Write the structure tokens for this entry.
Amino acid sequence: MNLRRYSELLEVSSGDPDDARRRQLLNILLLGLAVLTLLTILITGTVIAAHMANPDKAALLAFFVSLGALAAIGLVFAINHYWSGQVASVLFLLMLTIVVALSDEPRQVVEGRSVFLFTIPILMASVILRPWASFALAGLSSLVIATLALRLPEYVPPAPTMLGFFAFAFVAWLSARSLESALKDLRDINRELDQRVEKRTQELQVANKELARANERLRELDRLKSKFVSMVSHELRTPLGAIQGFAEMLQAGIYGSLSKKQEDALERISKNTRRLLMIVNDLLDQARIEAGELSIRPTVFSPSDLTEDLKSTVGVLVERKGLELTTEVADDVPDSLYGDKERLHQILVNLTDNAIKFTDEGGVHVHICRPDGKHTSHWAIEVSDTGPGISEEDEELVFAPFRRVDDSMTREHIGVGLGLSIVKQLVELMNGEIILESEPGQGSTFTVVLPLQPEQRRTV
Amino acid sequence: MSKRSAMIIEDNEDLAIIFAEALQAAGFDTGIIQDGSTALTRLESCVPNIIILDLHLPHVSGEDILKHIRADERLVETRVIIATADPRMADMLKDQADLVLLKPISFGQLRDLAGRLSPQPA
């Protein structure tokens, strides 16, 4: 049942909230009265029906009076709803006073059992009209009983009763007034709150706009930074390429034979140029990833190509450090995979390079396999080393750009700390994930998990 | 039999020298051109066996030169190696060139590749 809809029937729309409240209150009173009247009609109707042959006169009178009252209630309701609350209230109170005056014997009305019924319209007047209206009703009630008293023999107008009406009106006036002022205060507070909310909302909107502008400026700065890094990297790569090329030509004997010392010096030039070039390449990659310019270009390749290319790239490095690099491709890995071979090579070289950096004894094992567990539609590259391992708190730092775990350990290996960060970002660009498992003293394993083509997925 | 010829179209002099040396080491006669319009003029009169083509050139871009080469029937046998630092351009043009190399290109790499692509006649 929808109570709200029924209660809406009693509401009257009005520009003045007090008027609306009073008119609604009047409607509620009318409803209560209508229910009482209907009950009377029902009861008297039943009594009359039971004695059809000789109907009770009092019952008949009550029946017809009730019918009239019901019609009057409907009329007042209509006036209240469509025209004026004040007119309706005045009519209602007059009607009520007349009913009270006629409800009993005149003697009882003047100073008997029914005299107190006059307090009902007096009280109602204070709430459905203005607070002072209760005095008007007290006056009207006094007039009624004075008139009745004068018409009765041996009766004079009962002054104490009339005074009592005014005393009652005074109490009603006081309470209605305090109720109205409390309601007014409440409305004022509400209005002030509304204003405050509106003001705060406006301030918030202004702040939001400023924030958006600041954000846009930051994004612009970020774009500029990426563009700058990218441009500088380009400009650095060209002369570096030239230095590398000329050193290589000298080493190849294009410009004549060299002494042992000259060869050593050239080797150092080459080595440092390569290192610098790698750093510039990393910076360029990082800038392109940040600018969203780095795209993945997948092709079909064989997993063994990856391990062979890796060996030829890092073989010298491994040998020089006296380590062992072993590679293995598991049997259940498809012969041909789909992915960006160049970038996968970069990932593998970065991970292996990192492993070699931190491993002094033992070696690095690269395993291309199908991962267990939830990754049934994936393949994986595992790079494990026998190095010092990574503590749990450092694991989070490992993939952060420009951060290096334990600088004292990497002192010999100059770099900007981008290798693993780039790996992670590349893996994410390939819709894969990278997992690090390590314990200090137990070595580390980096596992790159990448999606297979749909047709290559394992049938479960 | 005369040596096979290579045309190096590269505006950076240092890189042009490295490319030329690498191709000479692979057994080519080499000529260096440092701007796009000169390259187009020269291509009207000579048919090199191999062209090393930079993309960022003064006057006429490497891309336009590549189009010109591919449209010229005389140059149908000419092998084109693009040398660029821009991976996006490399990707875009890889179907039109015989080989695309991303800069920096090492001397040894170019020497070996050029040797394989168009070996010195016996």
About this structure: The interface with chain A takes residues 12, 14-15, 18, 21, 25, 85, 88, 91, 103-108 of chain B (CB under 8 Å). Residues 13-25 of chain B form the longest helix (13 residues). Chain B has a mean pLDDT of 88. The helical segments of chain B are 13-25, 36-45, 62-71, 87-93, 107-117.
